[in-house]
Amino acid sequence: MESRSIEVDAGSAGQRLDRFMVKAWPDHSRSFWQRQIDAGQVLVNGKAGKAGHLVKGGQMVTVRWEATEPPQLDLANGPSHWPDWVVYHDAAVIVVNKPRRLVVHPSAGHWDDSVVQQLGFWLSDRDGGMRPGVVHRLDRDTSGLMVIARTPKAREILASAIFARDVVRQYVAVVRGMLTPLNGVIDAPIGRDWNHRLKMAVTQDGRPARTHYRTLAHWPGFSLVQCGLETGRTHQIRVHLAWLGHPVLGDVLYGGRHPMFTQGQLLHAGRLVFYHPVRDELMEFVAPVPEDWRALTHLGTASVREPEVYAGTAEPLTHQWLSSLGVFVVASNS
């Protein structure tokens, strides 16, 4: 890891930090710098910065770099088959069931283990230029469904659909305790946690964030919940559930450490619905959870509260979904 620093000149005072980074290092896009800022890689006077922070003359901005560069794509000798986590592809879109341990974008320390890099052959033009069409993201240790555009037009249409909340993104998670009320909406702004550079938090000056949740089933001390995003803030579901005192199991960063779940948080983007950007056809995908979810059998018998796993669809049924993981279920009495 190496770092580079630059002092904010008087002419740049008052600019947003992400725009200042583009001016200082124009070889990278503004979205690239926003990702680096979100990852805590950009410091202002030694503290992690916010993309919207207005820089002041004389401040020292430091960026931490990985010494290596991302590997170049070999378009002449591309892979012979798609990764096994690609669940659908055509000329306009790719849908993936992202495994854990895989970041979405290449970044410091993650040049090879990213969705964009591993799909680079299919996201590149014939001149070797990358055109990654990522329109929404999942955290490194969150598994599940994502749609990626393969053309600029598809990206524009999908990004607009997400902004208009026309894309359905539904998650399942296992959390500590039982939420009160059992079903509801968490409406709390999210911003950077200034006490921990890797964390986000509910803050008064954060960006608006709303998460819908339903309690599907529960065990003694734990619950299975389905969450839906109305907004898409960094770590949103994880932050909101932890803020309520019900962290996601396996989420070490937000207080959900559990000895049985050490491969990552039990948070999975299980259902994705969108209109195809070219054919205008409704596309619906449901993806299975990772294998380590089968350890839920050790929590005992689950009491089912909601018949369907995903709101707005008849299948899968909650008791069948849990039974497929080996969990014994009974109907809840309350």
Automatic annotation (TrEMBL):
It is an enzyme of class 5 (isomerase). One of its GO terms (biological process) is enzyme-directed rRNA pseudouridine synthesis. GO terms for molecular function: RNA binding; rRNA pseudouridine synthase activity. PROSITE patterns: PSI_RLU, S4. It catalyses: a uridine in RNA = a pseudouridine in RNA. This is Pseudouridine synthase. InterPro entries: PsdUridine_synth_cat_dom_sf, PsdUridine_synth_RluA-like_CS, PsdUridine_synth_RluC/D, PsdUridine_synth_RsuA/RluA, RluA_PseudoU_synthase, S4_RNA-bd, S4_RNA-bd_sf. It holds the Pfam family PseudoU_synth_2. CDD domains: PseudoU_synth_RluA_like (cd02869), S4 (cd00165). Its EC number is 5.4.99.-. Belongs to the pseudouridine synthase RluA family. Keywords: Isomerase, RNA-binding. The active site is at D139. Responsible for synthesis of pseudouridine from uracil. Residues 15-76 form the RNA-binding S4 domain.
